[in-house]
């Protein structure tokens, strides 16, 4: 993929341009937990997305979603015709055994006092399930006439988190990205790629992006087992020029701050699992041998390889690499970053490699972090890369003799890596 002095000069130019950011493989497998989701119409979307089955797979126990379109904490909706308080009474036996309780309420602005109703709901839930872990999903809807009220409600949701004993999962950020501010919803802003939702008296959206919210919920409830963990976690990142991008945006510092342990990123521009790159001139396998002592102490290992299509068999090379890593660090948690590049002439090969990355995740024992989705959004399909599609706000990348991009959006990938790490949702932040 990288050949000749001209290509190397172009690579250096690209590097100069780069900006400066299954089941958990936990050391101890947590006991099975049941989950209860108490929601309005947003819960119906979560049910359609299969969140009950996903929660059961993640937590090991039964899951139930109680939803009623249009309901509030105190007022019944249009389907089961129960307020949230009435559903709590009806589902008391299930709630009493729940280890995780997720609340998705507040969008229907019916209560005389949302804050007072919220306190009443949490008091009843805590009486029934005092040992459960609680989460509240903020409001992500954008219908213009209702936004001022929703902003006020989100402020209540965030302000009361510590007092009422829950952690906030942000639907607004799941839809609009990690820098979006749920206390300043943009009135009438359509969800990415969507049109205004009819029937609400103003521009904007209410429903949708169910998969994005499901992912945020699963991430939050799955990583909570690490909250309060005292011992630091060390991280080893093994990659090519994509890992250089992570280094350039100071991912080492971010991971060290998040997890408390030492972090090392091993990168080499143009390298693959079996072919050396242009800087340290080592293959990924050679770097594993060189960094053996650090790897042996690593709790988390992240692999960002596959963009350079030089292996005779990527699937076989991937197996060899994981075999060697796990011989050194058998108890580490493993992650593999999928391929997010879009150069038209190579996209078909990258799509095929992504299919291998996803298909071998279970058998080789790693979780996938999607660079492709970090760049193009949760609805993007990494198994069918759009050939020649430019990254958002970027032009074609020179030096690859075809339209599309390879490098860039390192900050977005870094955020996806941090989100995948243990304890990503241990802190309530707006």
CA-based shape? globular
What letter string, H or E per element, gives the SSE order?
HEHHEHHEHEHHEHHEHHEHHEHEHHEHH
Level of helix content? 40-55%
Strand proportion: 5-15%
Describe it for me?
- There is one protein chain.
- The protein has 430 residues and is α/β, with parallel strands linked by helices.
- It folds into 2 domains: 33-225, SGNH hydrolase (Rossmann fold, 3-Layer(aba) Sandwich), CATH 3.40.50; 230-419, SGNH hydrolase (Rossmann fold, 3-Layer(aba) Sandwich), CATH 3.40.50.1110.
- The protein is 40% helix and 13% strand.
- Strands 2-1-3-4-5 form a 5-stranded parallel beta sheet, sandwiched between helices.
List the helices and strands and how they pair.
Layout: H1 4-17, E1 33-39, H2 41-48, H3 51-59, E2 60-67, H4 84-90, H5 92-96, E3 98-104, H6 114-128, E4 133-137, H7 147-159, H8 161-164, E5 167-169, H9 171-176, H10 210-223, E6 233-239, H11 241-248, H12 251-259, E7 260-267, H13 284-290, H14 292-296, E8 300-304, H15 314-328, E9 333-337, H16 347-359, H17 361-364, E10 367-369, H18 371-376, H19 410-420
Parallel strand pairs: 1-2, 1-3, 3-4, 4-5, 6-7, 6-8, 8-9, 9-10
Helix pairs in contact: 2-10, 3-10, 11-19
Short description:
This protein has 430 residues and is of the alpha/beta class. Helices cover 40% and strands 13% of the residues. It is built from 19 helices and ten strands.
């Amino acid at each position: 993929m990288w050949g000749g002095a001209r290509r190397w000069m172009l690579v250096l130019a690209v590097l100069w341009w780069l900006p400066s950011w299954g089941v958990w493989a936990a050391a101890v497998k947590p006991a099975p937990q049941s989950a209860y989701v108490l929601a309005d119409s947003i819960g119906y979307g979560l049910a359609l997305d299969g969140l009950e089955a996903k929660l059961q797979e993640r937590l090991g126990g039964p899951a139930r979603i109680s939803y009623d379109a249009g309901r509030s904490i105190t007022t019944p909706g249009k389907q089961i015709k129960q307020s949230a308080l009435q559903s709590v009474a009806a589902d008391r036996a299930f709630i009493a055994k729940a280890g995780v309780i997720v609340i998705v309420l507040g969008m229907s602005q019916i209560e005389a006092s949302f804050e007072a109703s919220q306190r009443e709901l949490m008091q009843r839930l805590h009486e029934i399930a005092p040992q459960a872990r609680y989460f509240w999903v903020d409001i992500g809807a954008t219908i213009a006439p209702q936004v001022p009220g929703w902003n006020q409600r989100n402020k209540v949701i965030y302000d009361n988190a510590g007092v009422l004993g829950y952690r906030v999962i942000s639907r607004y950020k799941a839809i609009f990205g990690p820098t979006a501010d749920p206390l300043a919803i943009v009135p009438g802003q359509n969800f990415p790629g969507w049109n205004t939702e009819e029937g609400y008296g103003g521009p904007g959206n209410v429903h949708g992006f169910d998969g994005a919210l499901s992912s945020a919920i699963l991430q939050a409830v799955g990583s909570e087992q690490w909250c309060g963990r005292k011992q630091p976690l060390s991280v080893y990142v093994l990659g090519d020029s994509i890992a250089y991008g992570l280094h350039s945006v100071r991912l080492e510092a971010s991971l060290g701050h998040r997890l408390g342990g030492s972090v090392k990123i091993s990168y080499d521009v143009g390298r693959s699992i079996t072919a050396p790159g242009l800087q340290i001139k080592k293959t990924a396998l050679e770097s594993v041998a060189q960094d053996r002592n650090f790897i042996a102490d690593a709790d988390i290992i992240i692999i960002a390889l596959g963009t350079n299509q030089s292996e005779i068999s990527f699937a076989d090379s991937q197996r060899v690499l994981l075999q060697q890593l796990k011989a050194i660090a058998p108890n580490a948690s493993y992650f593999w970053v999928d391929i997010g590049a879009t150069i038209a002439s190579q996209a078909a090969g990258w799509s095929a490699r992504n299919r291998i990355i996803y298909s071998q995740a279970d058998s080789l024992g790693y979780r996938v972090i999607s660079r492709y989705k970090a760049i193009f959004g949760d609805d993007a399909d990494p198994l069918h890369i759009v050939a020649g599609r430019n990254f958002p706000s970027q032009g074609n990348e020179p030096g690859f003799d075809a339209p599309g991009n390879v490098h860039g959006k390192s900050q977005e990938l870094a955020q996806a890596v941090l989100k995948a790490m243990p304890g990503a949702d241990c802190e309530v932040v707006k």
